[in-house]
């Protein structure tokens, strides 16, 4: 049973979401203070955190920033509908996904399942064989990535994206194909999640000797992982 920590100061919404998620088979713990999420991340006591951005004392962006200094536990952000700034800020800091409020319990449960699947299992249709692409080694079974002989600290979403690119190393992979293979769903218009997560992966891999990124983009088409 997956344990969910739900951080939100909206008591009515929290109760609704908790009751639904319990019916779906989750163990759910709730709190109104973001510091509980930081403590849970530090103690590795939950499987996933649902974190509202607009909270008193400490907002969700600051909480997420502190969590990512301690752990790669999956985090789903609850954002104000239409607030692209908060969404992009959350993704840049390592959030795995976001759901705009007000949200339906069913949508939230579906997003949680997808994130947990990415965090704990290989991408849909992928084998567990080791993937080697230049200096990158991917272990789908254990969800471990090694870059230049050292482990790379990736979120579940980042790992799924990098695995897709590694399986087609040296080839251009369209954003639509990345979304289908990494997330199991088609890319929707104006969705920038892939771009933001790829940007984070680029930072973790560093630059080539020529100063270029190891992950090249073709504007409006997709991404390519270089192997030399």
UniProtKB/TrEMBL annotation:
DNA-binding annotation, residue ranges on this chain: 128-227
Domain OmpR/PhoB-type: 128-227
Ranges of residues in domain Response regulatory: 3-116
Subcellular location: Cytoplasm
A Pfam family per the record: Response_reg
InterPro entries: CheY-like_superfamily, OmpR/PhoB-type_DNA-bd, Sig_transdc_resp-reg_receiver, WalR-like, WH-like_DNA-bd_sf
Gene3D superfamilies (alphabetical): 3.40.50.2300, 6.10.250.690, Winged helix-like DNA-binding domain superfamily/Winged helix DNA-binding domain
Domain of life assignment: Bacteria
Alphabetical keyword list: Cytoplasm, DNA-binding, Phosphoprotein, Plasmid, Transcription, Transcription regulation, Two-component regulatory system
Modified residues (4-aspartylphosphate): 52
Main location: cytoplasm
Protein name: Response regulator
């Amino acid at each position: 049973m997956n344990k969910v920590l739900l951080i939100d100061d909206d008591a009515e919404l929290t109760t609704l979401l908790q009751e639904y998620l319990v019916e779906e088979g989750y163990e759910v713990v709730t709190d109104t203070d973001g510091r509980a999420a930081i403590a849970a991340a530090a103690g590795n006591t939950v499987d996933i955190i649902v974190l509202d951005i607009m909270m008193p004392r400490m907002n969700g962006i600051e909480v997420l920033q502190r969590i990512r200094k301690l752990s790669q536990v999956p985090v789903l952000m609850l954002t104000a509908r239409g607030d692209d700034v908060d969404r992009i800020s959350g993704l840049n800091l390592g959030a795995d996904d976001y759901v705009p409020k007000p949200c339906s319990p069913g949508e939230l449960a579906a997003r949680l399942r997808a994130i947990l699947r990415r965090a704990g299992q290989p991408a849909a249709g992928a084998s567990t064989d080791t993937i080697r692409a230049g200096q990158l080694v991917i272990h789908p079974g254990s969800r471990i990535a090694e870059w230049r002989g050292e482990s790379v600290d990736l979120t579940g979403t980042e790992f799924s994206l990098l695995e897709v690119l590694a399986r087609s190393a040296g080839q251009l992979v369209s954003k639509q194909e990345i979304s289908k293979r990494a997330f199991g769903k088609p890319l929707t218009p104006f969705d920038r999640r892939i771009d933001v997560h790829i940007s984070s992966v680029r930072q973790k891999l560093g630059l080539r000797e020529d100063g270029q990124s190891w992950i090249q983009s073709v504007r409006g088409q997709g991404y390519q992982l270089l192997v030399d």
